[in-house]
Amino acid sequence: MRDAAGVSQAISELKALLGARVETGAAVRAAHANTLTWIETQPPDAVVWPVTTDEVAAVVGIAARYRVPVIPFGAGTSLEGHVNAPFGGLSVDLSRMARILSVSASDMDCTVEAGVKRQMLNAHLRDAGLFFAVDPGAADATLGGMAATRASGTNAMRYGTMRDNVISLKAVMANGTVVTTGARARKSAAGFDLTRLLIGSEGTLGIITELTLKLAPIPERVLVAACPLGSVTGACAATMAANASGLALARVELLDALQVRAVNVHSRLALPEAPYLFVEIAGGVAATEEQLAQFREIALANGALSFDWAADEVARRALWRARHDAFWSVRTMWPGKTVLVSDVAVPVSALAQCVDETVADIAACGLVAPIVGHVGDGNFHVIPVFDAGDSGEVTRVRGMLDRLVGRALALQGTCTGEHGVGQGKADYLVQELGQPALDAMRAIKGALDPLGIFNPGKILSSTKV
Amino acid sequence: MRDAAGVSQAISELKALLGARVETGAAVRAAHANTLTWIETQPPDAVVWPVTTDEVAAVVGIAARYRVPVIPFGAGTSLEGHVNAPFGGLSVDLSRMARILSVSASDMDCTVEAGVKRQMLNAHLRDAGLFFAVDPGAADATLGGMAATRASGTNAMRYGTMRDNVISLKAVMANGTVVTTGARARKSAAGFDLTRLLIGSEGTLGIITELTLKLAPIPERVLVAACPLGSVTGACAATMAANASGLALARVELLDALQVRAVNVHSRLALPEAPYLFVEIAGGVAATEEQLAQFREIALANGALSFDWAADEVARRALWRARHDAFWSVRTMWPGKTVLVSDVAVPVSALAQCVDETVADIAACGLVAPIVGHVGDGNFHVIPVFDAGDSGEVTRVRGMLDRLVGRALALQGTCTGEHGVGQGKADYLVQELGQPALDAMRAIKGALDPLGIFNPGKILSSTKV
User: Fold this and answer.
1) Is A409 on the interface with B (CB under 8 A)?
2) Residue B192 to residues A380, A442, B182, B184: CA-CA distances in angstroms?
3) Chain A partners of B432 at a C-beta cutoff of 8 Å?
4) CATH architecture of B334-449
5) pLDDT tens-digit map of B333-383
6) What's the count of helices (H) and strands (E) in chain A, helices before strands?
7) pTM of the predicted model, to two decimals?
8) ipTM value of the model?
9) Which class does domain B100-217 fall in?
10) What is the pLDDT of residue B462?
11) Pick from B184, B347, B414: which is nearest to A190 by CB?
């Protein structure tokens, strides 16, 4: 599959184009492959750092000439092997395309290059009273990577995912042309939705180089609440009741009892080791008070053992600390272990069953795997902690995660709520969507990338190792 | 282009399949072509009424065998010639696929067949305290048609458009397979977004036969407000200030002075003939009071001449009557005239300029054309009233609408905010999106419908007459 001569010719041409912004050292290449999870590290042949859309197009032109794979790279924080190079090729690192091109406070939108990171953007926007709402666990992902993987996070319930927060995109296509997917109007019915087609396409259909994003006003007031519940079922019932009441909760997060124990150890807290809900309410003063009162009533009616809330920033941070520290606490509590994060999503009415059965399965196969959920939209993370050198344990983890996906699909859910497909979930797509949908995706892929140079081995074909 | 023998063979096979649910009478055929606007009526060769997805697939199979165009038909309320048959073929009328298949109050979703109409669905949902939020001007469109044209309406500001309110779709593809685009989870990162690709594809990529929709809780309380402003600029400034304050206004509608005059005549009101804002606020009791007070302050600061509001349903209806009666009032005030509705959308910051210049243009060419806008998202309708037999006037209307699109595009807007492309806006797409985007759309079209049988002459090629 790999054409060494072609790769080496392509690299010479790239050096002529980009000079020192082409690197082939082993360390740089390895750092541009999957490094965060147990999916094997598959480095590219070279890494290039374009600084303009035209340079990206030129890189794609060279890659096409020599049939060399092209893999876009943002911050490298994806979890399913998206940035791996199973067939070698070029990692196109967009981190030097990091300009904020424009911000319109009146229109509450901005246009940024793909390499701009979320925290940098939000720091830039703060004085205008605005923020970009999508907040994935990879706290400092690039906006381009977030769009490419259809990222979401704790804010998705109120603000939506990347699908909902991108107005239009600029992308380099496999034929070297630069597509602009839409105007700057907030809504449009003008033709096929290329914006949404590229969002979540994980670099297999185009390389996103610019994004026009919806922004939101920083809320006048934010309240947070936290409460332990008698059961996951109670936590989910409270969430559904809040949804049905039209409470516009900004965030609803669930920690299972094991995750709460880890947080207690890590953060020296003494929370009851029960399923915990963390809720954020944002809006005007009267609206937030009203919603807090309504949510308190709902939580108590659904078995809340206690109910704490806070309004000022310091107290809010203290109350939400358990949620913020969740991932770190797992590393602290089980030092030296490998920690993975997988995700599924189900209809909210099936969430309690899905979580409870998963907790039981984890226990039954003698594993450790706390659970953290964006319970408002039925999405949750399972975080297995294991010894990567213990092949028996690794096999049990694989089996548990495989059953997790099967359980989610049986409950009309999805194999990935927000992490994407990459290599890790490619085997599940046909089960989730059926062969005709996969055929349609393959037809689109074939039409837009007939040479198959854009991130091969992801989404549509399994190259998981 | 038309193969009469093929058409007649296809019709025989269809009659064998569907019996009396195939019709070829001239009146039925004419009623299944564009009838609502000045785009020429181009009837299909036959109309078929399938009642299951499998029947739709069988119809597509026959059509493919004889290379006969297939044009899906819902309620026939689209405005840009979407249902016309410029090359003849089969109108696939989905109105007998009108079952509500399931409603989940816990998940706030439902699954319906494509022919279910919006008002029927909302009547069905009322007792569960839920509603489907997208509310196009064609008040009783089918859900399938609304998805196919990416419809929106006055609720889009708060609830989004069809793009945002469909969880997944079932669609028959041109190869006769039935695609299910997603699971029932609220969010997913599993593969290309076929849901969004089909939404707005206007029957050119697939025939939508089922939809799983997001529902919203009926708000606890609804307040409405109405205020005349000194200028369109003031109305737009008030809207932008409300957006920036994070007021979750449910609806913000603008009527220009001419439209207010028409309403006064039609509904025997005595509103000041100035640009008017109509606003709806929904939520809890305290939240709505708070938002009303904030919006009132914003409106007065931006030149509101007065400010009325109402809470109980009768008073609300009276206050919003001018907005509800807008389209009918135009027909009443200018009886015997042809009334058209066109739409564009621009970034909100450019809306005042776009509306003011359009009003001036209308006056300068001696036309009558009131304006109604979904000002919250920069979308507005221009409603020319003219004598269709007066070719000079028709030419002036065409010129005015052409300049309207040019103006919207120059302001980074779109040629259609919510009506879709069909035949009427096809000529503008390349100007709005550029050739590479059109090429990508054509490649997708070619991949998914290589025979070109799905709604030919729409979106991607101009067959406007």
Assistant:
1) yes
2) 21, 10, 10, 16
3) 183, 190
4) 2-Layer Sandwich (3.30)
5) 999 999 999 999 999 999 999 999 999 999 999 999 999 999 989 999 999
6) 18, 20
7) 0.97
8) 0.97
9) alpha beta
10) 61
11) B414
